[in-house]
Amino acid sequence: MNPPRPDHHRPHAQHPRDAPSMPTTEHTTAHPPVGTLIALPVLEGEIVRERGVAGLGARVVALVRAVVTSPQAVQLRAVATYRARRAPRDLIRLVWFFLRGHARWAVKGWCWATHGDLRADSRAARLVGDSEARRVAQEMIRSDGHARWAKLGHAARLGLAGGLLIAFLAGVLTLIDAQVPRAEMWPWLATLYTVLGVLAALGAWLLKAAPMGWVIAAVWEGQDRTPGAGWLIRPSREDADSWVDERMISQALAHLGITPLDRFFKNGGELTYTVPARVDGDGTYAQIRLPLGVEADMVAARRKRLAANLGRAALETWPTEGDEAGILDLWIADKGRLGKGAGPWPLLHEGSVDVFTGVPIGTTQRGQVIHGLFFERNWLVGGRPGQGKTSLVRILVLGAGLDPTAEIWVFVIAQNTDFDPLAPRLSRYAVGMGPEVAAAAVQSLADLLTEMGRRGKLLATLPGSPPATSRRLADKPALGLHPLMCVISECHELFGHPSYGAQAAKLAISVIKQGRKFGITLILDTQSPTAASIPTDVTRHVSCGVAFSVADHEANDGLLGSGKYRAGIRATELRMNTDRGTCVAVGVSDAPFELLNTFHVPYADGVDMVTPVVSRAMAAINDLRRTAQPTTNHDDQDHDGPAEVDYLTDIDQVLRGERRVRTQVVLSRLAELDPATYEGWGFHDLTTTLARHGIKPVKSRGVKSIRATDITHALTHRAPHNTTNSDHKKGI
Questions:
Q1: pTM, whole model, 2 decimals?
Q2: Are residues 588 and 651 in the same domain?
């Protein structure tokens, strides 16, 4: 066979996989002559771009870096490092917890076996000299002992019988399993043996795990019960200073120096927490039933000592009387939370107000926004000068001004400009210390009484005789039942005026007592809330009392009500200037009191955030005037007449010439005719209106109907003085 020719003699090189196999010879390794072309093998593959690999690697690195630097990973590393460093000490603690857990179990067992709780009750009864309670406790010890022995005997008999039964069944099953193959057993019996095998395996595993469970239970029982103690956290928690639980509260109460309470703790008594300590806003709340002979006001009288025992300032500790004299409501603020302020007023830049639902005035110690109500409310606000009382009243006036249906009067018995920016929104406004301002304020109080009489008569004539004004009635300008607020700033100057003081006090008390259901609200503020400057009946009947920092208990009770200082509701704890803007308020919520951080709308030299709000209020009034239908001013109407809507004419219109119409159909047609007036009407409203004209719905075919002839007769024969303002407008 001739040797193959070299590849460079071939016209085209073959692909390596197409070339025939050739024997390997030595001459194949010879170097070809210089200048000879060599056919290299062609390789199959895919081009991998270096940039793609680099991009993928960068993404992986970025992902790993993000995971490693995440807050969770950082916290995990910190905890792991901290625990590894403290591992020896933690091991010693675990051993100590294990031993202490067994000791606690032993104590509990001994207490149960010897009736320790009942014996403690017997000793307590002996110490207080209660022979009856001691006799009952001793009888319970004897009866409980007999009952326990009886239960133990019964349990022993059941255990013995059960053990014998189980042993017998186990012997029978073992004998059957040894004599009969599983394949020849009945299916249910084979299944039973399978289940028993699984249970035996689980039992063996549980026996191995039982010691570990025992150790864990003992460690859990013996663990440290110090508040805030834990295993997977650092001891330097951010809230470590704010942590409060029942144990800390009990210890603080035990060191107040109250004799009955000291005796109770000395005899081993434990307080009953009707509400356990729990987080409540920016603090901790608990409710405690005090032992015999201890009242809540006794604890409130030692408020400073209680605060010191809890590691708090007096302002941060609020013990008050609960529903009973022996119930203590205790709220403890987190450290440093009360001085943070309420933040910006929610209505500063946008929003409107419905005075029937209230105006946001501040936030409570629990962090909740409180709305100041006007309907069926009157306000008395006071405190030392410069502590925020005028700012709060201004917030109330600004909020009411954002309701375009509200009418506001302001009288300042002092020479200042606190309310000057609100003047465009005020219907009456007077400032000064002269007698003319006091006279104007007294005249306005008299006008309020007159307005109350008018509104009372008008409400009596309305369908259904509503007992009080409402949002629906206030939205009808023709009725004149809109909200009306009267503010008297520095009211002590008015009540102490030599000429007008007595009359002003008498009128103010009448307005406070009678004006609530007519939509009339009186707001008073003062910096001298004493019995001599503020009438006692004003404080007694006012709905909402607000006290900023005051000097003594007389000023405190003069604003918040009699007995509030004794009950632990004290604005005397508020510090001058330091707690500016913080007040104690009663009547603003369902709670006995609230510690409020009030909102503030800046108004000072060079800073005026009040005027933009007033501009919004005026724009809202203009919008309401453009959209409202023209009505006759109620001041020019006969206030003793019926309502301004001609109900009889409207009913005649919706009958649509029909001889008889069902009352339900009449009501629906009236609602279509004038939704603002008739949307809330019911059968009682319709029959009451018809009864004024001597008309009664007749029953026809089982339904109540109104006859057109009755309406026509009433329209024809009604007296001229019964013609309403609506009739005048229609030319009747």
A1: 0.57
A2: no
